[in-house]
Amino acid sequence: MNIQNNERAFKPAEYKSAVKPVWCPGCGDHSVLLSIQRALAELALPPEEVAVVSGIGCSSRIPAYTNCYGFHGVHGRSLALATGLKVARPDLTVLVASGDGDGFSIGGNHFLHACRRNVDLTYIVMDNRIYGMTKGQPSPTTEPDWDTAIAPGGTGLSPFHPLVIALASGANYIARAFSGDISGCAKLIVDAIRSPGFSFVQILSPCVTFRPDQQKGWKDFIRPAMVPETDDHGRAARRLMTDDGFNIGVLFRGARPPYQPQPLDHRDPSHLEAEFVL
């Protein structure tokens, strides 16, 4: 990211808007919002030099809760919007806030190609393995045997593995965090923003309303990754394919240069007329 050294220190509260979050009490997204604010303060990024883009869903409300530039887009299209913004304004630090439904279902194709393009932005996905805003339907990352009134007996479908997909598609930085660890979550977001190219951070963020089992269960399952981060695609693929979804930390850090658009041609557009003369 284009981070300049700023002499003035910033406080997390300076990235907080006047809009009060409407998430359910205890929702992990409260902690993710605080982690983002802490990360931006640590990087000393002026709010006017940051843009937060989102789609639709509980997590996608984040632009309204930050005192930065923000864009609340349509369902699944946040990465397309953010890519265009970053290419047009490479001086901005661009963050994308999404959820497992918004990012991996209707937005899944954009996810693949954002990893491939490797534009210099940070994609933060709050994954609660449920469609929380629309009353608890199974999402792409929901366990196949999770029994609910909407899907009796479970869906029986293999869950989407976002980190594996990100690696195969070309993401330059891949990490997983837990919303219950605000300091650790903020640290990974800082690292992701500093990392050039497309950075993807999956944040396990419990839904206390429709998945109350997650609140305690995930705390018991979460653990630091036992192996160090790697830049080797083969090694990263092996560790991610055998991962149970609860290893926290940086799982892959690549060295692929980020996409750099060609400078715009600012010539007088009248020259285009000559090209169409028969």
Question: What is the CATH architecture annotation?
Answer: 3-Layer(aba) Sandwich
Would you count the extended β strands for me? 8
The backbone outline, from C-alpha atoms, is globular
**In the CATH scheme, what's the topology name?**
Rossmann fold
Strand order of the largest sheet: 2-1-3-4-6-5-8-7
Q: Mean of residue pLDDT?
A: 91
DSSP helix fraction: 25-40%
Share of residues in strands = 15-25%
- Terminal Cα separation, in Å? 46 Å
CATH class wording: Alpha Beta
Count of separate DSSP helical elements: 10
| Sheet having the most strands | 8 strands, mixed
Integer tally of domains: 1
Rg, Å, rounded: 19 Å
Q: What is the ordering of alpha helices and beta strands?
A: HEHEHEHHEHEHEHEHEH
Name the structural class. Answer: alpha/beta
Q: Topology, pairings included?
A:
Layout: H1 28-42, E1 50-54, H2 62-65, E2 69-72, H3 78-88, E3 93-99, H4 100-106, H5 108-117, E4 122-127, H6 162-169, E5 173-178, H7 182-194, E6 199-204, H8 212-221, E7 223-224, H9 233-241, E8 247-253, H10 271-275
Parallel strand pairs: 1-2, 1-3, 3-4, 4-6, 5-6, 7-8
Antiparallel strand pairs: 5-8
Helix pairs in contact: 1-7, 4-5, 5-6, 6-9
Describe this structure in words.
By secondary structure, the chain is an alpha/beta fold. The protein has a single domain, classed as Thiamin diphosphate (ThDP)-binding fold, Pyr/PP domains (Rossmann fold, 3-Layer(aba) Sandwich), CATH 3.40.50. Helices cover 33% and strands 15% of the residues. The chain has ten helices and eight strands. An eight-stranded mixed sheet has the order 2-1-3-4-6-5-8-7, sandwiched between helices. Helix 9 links the parallel strand 7 and strand 8 (247-253). Helix 1 (28-42) crosses helix 7 and helix 4 packs across helix 5. The longest helix is centred in the N-terminal third of the chain and has 15 residues, at 28-42. The radius of gyration is 19 Å and the shape is globular. It starts with 27 loop residues before the first helix and ends with a helix. 43% of the residues are buried. The mean pLDDT is 91.
